[in-house]
Model the fold of this input.
Amino acid sequence: MRTAGVMPEPAHPTQQTIEPLVIDFRDRAALTKHFQRFAPDAIVSCISSRHGGIRDAWRVDYEANRNLLHAALTSGLKHFTLLSAICVQKPLLAFQHAKLKFEQELIASGLKHSIVRPTAFFKSLSGQVNRVKSGKAFFLFGDGQLTRCKPIAEQDLASYMCNTLEDESLQGVLPIGGPGEAISPLEQAQLLFDCAKKPLRLRRIPAAVPKQISRLLAVPGRWSSSWRDKAEFARIAHYYATESMLLWDEQHQRYDAEATPSFGSNLLQDSYRRQLAGADSQELGAQAVFSRP
Done:
């Protein structure tokens, strides 16, 4: 597992350049060597498994971050900002348990830290843009009202994470969503069709279907890691079909949209309009990276 990163390299007493590095996060000794060389003041870790498979979740979400933390502790690091996820507050999946275990180790390390738990990204709510653009129906689980979220733009999330490095109040566990009211999948569909200036077309799938599929796949999964991952992907689908990405109120056993903090100014409908106009995901990703303060 190799990950590209950047470290400051002094070039002049009053100037700095950026030196890109490619680091194997499985190699704790190499990580420690790089950290002792550069002695960074802070880390912003966005390490995350790509698909949420069981083995990858533990290798990436947990072990890679653990190695990063170990190297950081040898270098006099002052602050560690971690990109986590709001869904770890109700952990049922491998990647959630892996993220949560590293969160606990980061807290126990005694290092000053910010654990950022965002709600849904704009990107995660954009998977059906091309379907709608081409005149196809929008897929919904159940009636489309089972869950809600407060989606946040990648550039707003990047700004918020940068703020954790300077704002002393932004420490500890930090759930964060985007501006505006919480939105359901049905409302997402209506918003997308409105932006596309097309009549609403829906195709409903029973919310229990992914769970049933996961049970079927679990049988061959007893002997095959590949099939175990397939069963896990189905469980992930069921989770997102039935659980909101909002702050969980443990006392009342419900999600609380009002208590979920908001940040930023970018709106989901503006992202939809850009995508419908032809901005692809790579372009939108570049906007998110290069619009940070």
Remarks:
- The mean pLDDT is 87.
- The longest strand covers residues 2-12.
- The chain is about 40% helix and 20% strand.
- Strands lie at 2-12, 15-24, 42-45, 79-83, 113-118, 138-141, 172-176, 202-205, 247-249, 254-256.
